Amino acid sequence: MKYTVPSFHGGIEIKKETNSTSAEIIQTYIPNYALLVLKTYENQPDFRIVVYEGQEIAEGQVVAQSNTGYKIHAPIPCVLHKIVQVVTPMGYISQALVIKLSGYFTLSLNSSERYHWRSLNSNDIRFLLNEKGVICSISGKPLTEELAQNSSADILVINTLIQDMNCHGENLLFENTKTKILEAAAILHKIFNFSSIIIATHFEYEFTNTEIKIIEELKIPINFRLFPLKYPQADNHLIEKTLLKTYPKNEAHKILTLETRTLIAVYDAVVKNKPFIEQYVFVGGNCLKTSALLKAKIGTPIGSLIEELGGFIMKPDIIAINNVLKGQKTLDLDTPVTKNMHAIIALNNTLWQHQSSSICTTCGTCIDVCPCLCNPMEMYKNQMYNIQFKNTRKYFEKCIACGLCTYVCPGYIKLQDLFLKAKRDLL
Q1: How are strands ordered across the β-sheet holding 56-57?
Q2: For residues 327 and 163, what is the distance between their CA atoms, to the nearest angstrom?
Q3: Exposed/middle/buried for 264, CB within 10 Å: 0-12, 13-18, 19+?
Q4: CA 291, CA 293: separation in Å to the nearest integer?
């Protein structure tokens, strides 16, 4: 069944990409060297590295693990060149392994093998998710931690929405992996016994007869919700807030929202017995002739992915990781693909070229676009001039750091940077 979900306040319409986009998912080449970053979120505890420099390592072999049993695996057969500390693509410090391609691929040869998961209990499934290194690709946390924090969830939302105004690979990924995602949803249904499974989407899809048969066999209650094509609709908080409004007020529901890459990793771990060693990364932006969704080994330099599409057609001002407005910015083509990377966007002629002002003209444009009904003008004056307003703290609590206030500001005031610092200090 399909239902259209009402729009939220503010936001910006997502427009069609100007450059051509490949209609297929491209498998990237294997890197000779890779940088395997261990941490996937800030303040994550250090890992115990279980390999040593000079050691030959098989594809998929465990190279590090946490004290909770979450493990990290070699994405390629390799020799461990050295152990280093790096600044991750997301901006924090992490241990990392520099590995050099060496040896033979084994996991790739067993791609047709399936494991019978229906006899597994919920603890077995959680163990496999940790053992195979599955994370929630939005938060970067091990998926078992996310499941524990949402243990009372009765609704699963599969988030297929476009994550960024310049990133259009989500519908292609969902269309090409629907069968895997449906089976992954059934695996999680076995843990939670969801009352409903919702696919949050911008576009109308039809299940094939094969997919309908899978749904019937797996006995999962599943339907679509059509969301407006706006940014930042893909934010999990906004999805959940919008969906809960569609239920009667006397019904209490708890929602677990996961996006497509996480569910694909669940399928690979439980059905294929495969560790999380590859990621789907959308590569695009006006500095490239073609945009595409690429399947890349974890640790591959982003420059290799850009080269795969023919390189730059103009010099970029920035290369944004995951999200132009709230993601990290870089120009380092050796930046590695990580488990929680889903987009690389190279842009020229952007707002980052402009000189930032420090004077607010009180035009109110930022208030109009804020999806959380905050007042960025008051938040700015609070931080710059220590002016106290009645709802300032409430606004900082509600802010999802989507970056729209910075994007629309005619003075190019870097409101988002200011608000992120304030959120850390206040909250």
Answers
A1: 33-37, 93-101, 78-87, 56-57
A2: 11
A3: buried
A4: 7
Mean local confidence (pLDDT), 319-342: 93
Six token digits for residue 219:
């006995």
Element (H, E) at 48: strand 48-49
Please, what are the domains in the chain? 2-19+111-270 (3.40.50), 365-426 (no CATH)
CA-closest candidate to residue 285, choices 308, 259, 315, 260: 315
Q: Is the peptide bond preceding residue 6 cis, with omega within 30 degrees of 0? A: no
d(CA 260, CA 340): 12
Amino acid occupying residue 15: K
CA distance 141 to 144: 8
- The CA distance from 352 to 346, in Å, is 13
Token couple for 399: 């802010």
In sequence order, the 6+-apart residues with CB closer than 8 A to the CB of 214 are 179, 182, 183
In sequence order, the 6+-apart residues with CB closer than 8 A to the CB of 388 are: 382
Distance, CA of 24 to CA of 372 (rounded, Å): 36
pLDDT attached to residue 350:
66
Tens digit of each residue's pLDDT (9 = 90 or more) over 31-77? 899 999 999 998 899 999 999 999 999 999 999 999 999 999 999 99
**Which residues, 6+ apart, have CB-to-CB distance to 148 below 8 Å?**
none
CB 339 within 8 A of CB 276: yes
Q: Which of 1-15, 277-291, 300-314 has the lowest mean pLDDT?
A: 1-15
What are the residues whose beta carbons fall under 8 Å from the beta carbon of 166, sequence distance 6 or more?
17, 284, 285, 320, 324, 345, 347
Residue closest to 307 by CA, chosen among 323, 290, 327, 321 = 290
CA distances in angstroms from 138 to 68, 253, 261, 335, listed in the order given: 20, 22, 9, 19
pTM above 0.90, yes or no: yes
Instruction: List the strands of the sheet with 329-330, edge to edge.
Output: 20-27, 290-297, 278-284, 343-347, 318-321, 329-330
Unique residue bearing structure tokens 């609709």: 233
Q: Is the pLDDT of residue 16 over 80?
A: no
Task: Supply φ then ψ for residue 52, to 5 degrees.
Answer: -130, 160
Q: Could you tell me the pLDDT band of residue 213, with boundaries at 50, 70 and 90?
A: confident
pLDDT at 351 over 60: no
Q: How far apart are CA 212 and CA 165, in angstroms?
A: 32
